[in-house]
Specification:
Arc Repressor Mutant, subunit A, 67% helix, elongated
């Protein structure tokens, strides 16, 4: 796994902490970089640079990581289809979800689900 989902954000900037909180609370919504900058009352370019400086990630990288993290529970504990899960965590289509998931987790959502269910079924 490339991403430590329990990673503590050590950034000290109030705006970035607030942005991450909003991302965690509203990951299933369409939250563009511009929308977030407007919400925080910041210039889009300034917010983009500040976000990268404080977190070491781009806004879209972190949003994808949050969405993939939230999807893990749905993959393991529901019978939702991959498309339903993709839509539930804020992706507009399954292909983009699959691509983001594979980039972060190193495998596809379906392969992850099958592997985890197989390992849980072992005595």
């Amino acid at each position: 796994m490339k991403y430590n989902f329990n990673e503590e954000w050590r950034c000290c900037n109030f705006h970035i902490k607030r942005a991450i909180e909003e991302m965690n609370n509203n990951y299933s919504e369409s939250i563009s970089l511009k929308d977030m900058a407007d919400f925080l009352g910041l210039n889009k370019c300034y917010f983009c640079d500040l976000f990268k400086k404080e977190t070491g990630k781009t806004y879209s990288q972190l949003l994808n990581e949050i969405r993939v993290e939230k999807s893990l529970d749905l993959l393991l504990n529901t019978n939702m289809t991959i498309l339903e899960i993709a839509l539930a965590v804020g992706y507009n289509n399954q292909n983009y979800y699959n691509m983001a998931f594979k980039k972060i987790m190193g495998t596809t959502p379906l392969k992850y689900r099958n592997a985890m269910k197989s390992s849980l079924a072992l005595p």
